[in-house]
Write a structure and sequence with these properties.
Helix content is 62%, strand content 11%. It is mostly helical. The longest helix has 23 residues. It is built from 2 helices and 2 strands. A two-stranded antiparallel sheet has the order 1-2.
């Protein structure tokens, strides 16, 4: 099988798994509503910037990538 096709299939499966985990996990881990996320609400205006959520997702993905590199050598 073509290596590009194999990577696209694996990437699609990974995205599906992440989407399912996000849908199920949102009941237990409120990503997007963590303490430290910036929310400004006024009459006709709502500004939302999930800075702590971005940091948590980045740290988690960095850990996953580190573990993948560690075990693939």
């Amino acid at each position: 099988m073509n290596p590009v096709a194999k990577m696209l299939i694996i990437g699609g499966i990974v995205l599906i798994v992440i989407g399912l985990l996000w849908a199920v996990g949102s009941k237990f881990l409120p990503l997007g509503r963590l303490p430290g996320d910036i929310v400004v609400e006024k009459e006709n205006f709502k500004f939302y910037f999930p800075i702590v959520t971005c940091i948590a997702v980045s740290a988690g993905l960095s850990l996953i990538m580190y573990l993948i590199r560690l075990f693939t050598k």
